Amino acid sequence: MDLQALVDAASTRDWDTDPEGAVSIAVVGLGNYARNVSIPAIEAGDYTDLGAVVSGDPEKAERVADEHGAVPLSYEGYAEGEAVDAYDAVYVATPNRLHLDHVRTAADHGKHVICEKPLEATTERATAAVDACEDAGVTLMTAYRMQADPVIRALGSFVSRGGIGEPTKAMGEFTFPVLAGSKGPDQWRLDAELAGGGALMDVGVYSLNTMRYLLGADPGAVEAIAHASEPFGDRPDEPDSPRFTDEHVHVLASFPAGVVGEFTASFSGEADSWLELVGSDGRVRVENAFTPGGDRTVRVSTADGDVELSGVGADETREEFDYFAHCVLTETPPEPDGRDGLTDVAIVGAIYEAAESGERVTLTRR
Q1: pTM of this prediction exceeds 0.70
Q2: What are the pLDDT digits (tens) for 233-254?
Q3: Which DSSP helix (H) or strand (E) runs through 159?
Q4: Are 173 and 241 in contact, with CB atoms under 8 Å apart?
């Protein structure tokens, strides 16, 4: 793929076969992200519409349902199968440790599932979510919106075809000042039991997963340093658990073919996100890489020349839901499927183990 082909591919849905129909989605969990990012993306989609909304707050469920013409449900009603004909699939957007129960409910109802990242709070629970959907014969997609973005997909093809030569170093950062908004330290992201961790679990998985996608490979070993100050640092009640609400984490990852990875994630500091992949004959850098709806800048430098794409990728959440619906309509397995999400949860667990022990941890292929 030459540079012009890369530019052309960055605005093209390489997966879209224009199927007929639409997938009606029930949104389970009505936090800020679900209300302000995901629901608008679902409503804007070519293959999606909003069928139901589920919340533990009856007033919120009624209000959001009225605003969007959807069916309001409580968690109990969702579990019991109320209005089950109002939707074809479920989007799980609750805190991480609650994902499994909602995924199981969807599978029991015969509904396809797109579940927010990380797939669950522990490897065991993520495995159970994957098993539940496989046993029920329904699609499970982990909501990695970057993998559906035409820009990232074009870069993946460019790298796989030798656009920057042999990859040598992979880097990424995502800093999200979690206390800078309206929510204080009592939010679920700072509850290690609900979240399964801290900055690594919430935002660090973006750079890890996106780089796994670009490289087409998983790390074989990791080393890590993690730090937390007040009000971060609470540990869950599980005996001997290495999990805690990490404020900052720095990861070194060893990928196949000698590729060295270096990633950081933070819950405090100036907001920023970027991704860079260096090769023997060039490099790719993505600025403002992971902000939902943010204008990204992509710089590609090769022996054949340089190219810069500005203001691209602002609709990746819509792409994510349309891609999921397209997979359901065409009975095609999604690329970021449940096992992709399970792999990330296992990698995160190994990183926390490495940070706790101070030793290099080898990962086993799942």
Answers
A1: yes
A2: 866 565 555 567 899 999 999 9
A3: helix 150-160
A4: no
Distance CA 334, CA 323 (A): 8
Report the alpha-carbon distance of residue 355 to residue 337 in Å, rounded.
28
Q: What confidence tens digit (pLDDT) does each residue in 152-180 have?
A: 999 999 999 999 999 999 999 999 999 99
Burial class (CB in 10 A: 0-12, 13-18, 19+), 221: middle
Q: What is the pLDDT of residue 294?
A: 82
Neighbours of 110 (CB within 10 A): 11
What single DSSP character describes residue 171? E
Contact 172, 319 (CB under 8 A): no
What's the pLDDT band for 1 if we cut at 50, 70, 90?
Answer: low
Contact in structure between 249 and 205 (CB atoms under 8 Å): no
Please tell me the distance from the alpha carbon of residue 343 to that of residue 326, in angstroms, as a whole number: 23
According to the 3-state scheme, what is the secondary structure of 243-262? Answer: CCCCCEEEEEEECHHHCEEE
